Amino acid sequence: MHDLQQLRQETDEIIANLLNDGSDPDALYIIEHHIAHRDFDKLEKLVVDAYKLGYEISEAEEVEENGKLLFVCDIVSEIALNADLIAAQQKELLPLIEKAGAEYEGWGTYFEDPNAEEDEYGEDGEFFPDEDDFDDEH
């Protein structure tokens, strides 16, 4: 069971550090919730459930931690840098993570330069391509 108050405190600190470093307060941010599991099949079921809720999923990778093989991935969204929104995502995802027996390793994001001349995600400013974009490629 996760301590939501502690998670909120960590979220507030991450956001404060980003903004103090000059990250754009008005940008959309890629929020990556980091997940780890010893069982790939259980991780896969978890991420399918998260995908059904509207999240994107990064490709799972194998890592070795303390001599044990783990499978890790990120459950990803693009939202405003807002602690309430991130907390709402955690409240939605944590029951799925706990049910699957996975580990929630926190969340992360990237610095957004308010002075950047071009959007690093392309002309439309969106990190995730539309499904129609895939149809055009094939």
TrEMBL record:
- Is Cytoplasm tagged as a keyword? yes
Q: Where is this region: Disordered?
A: 109-138
Molecular function in Gene Ontology? endoribonuclease inhibitor activity; enzyme binding
An example Pfam family from this entry, by short name, is RraB
Biased amino acid composition, Acidic residues:
114-138
Q: What is its main location?
A: cytoplasm
Compartments, as annotated in UniProt: Cytoplasm
Q: Which UniProt keywords apply?
A: Cytoplasm
**What stretches pass through the bilayer?**
none
Q: Which Gene3D superfamilies match?
A: RraB-like
Q: Record's Gene Ontology CC terms?
A: cytoplasm
Coiled-coil positions: none
Q: Where is the Regulator of ribonuclease activity B domain?
A: 9-109
Q: Which family does it belong to?
A: Belongs to the RraB family.
What does the UniProt function comment say about this protein?
Answer: Globally modulates RNA abundance by binding to RNase E (Rne) and regulating its endonucleolytic activity. Can modulate Rne action in a substrate-dependent manner by altering the composition of the degradosome.
The cross-references to HAMAP family, in alphabetical order and at most eight, read:
RraB (MF_01888)
Subunit details: Interacts with the C-terminal region of Rne.
Q: Per its record, how is this protein called by name? A: Regulator of ribonuclease activity B
Origin species: Nicoletella semolina
Gene assigned in the entry: rraB
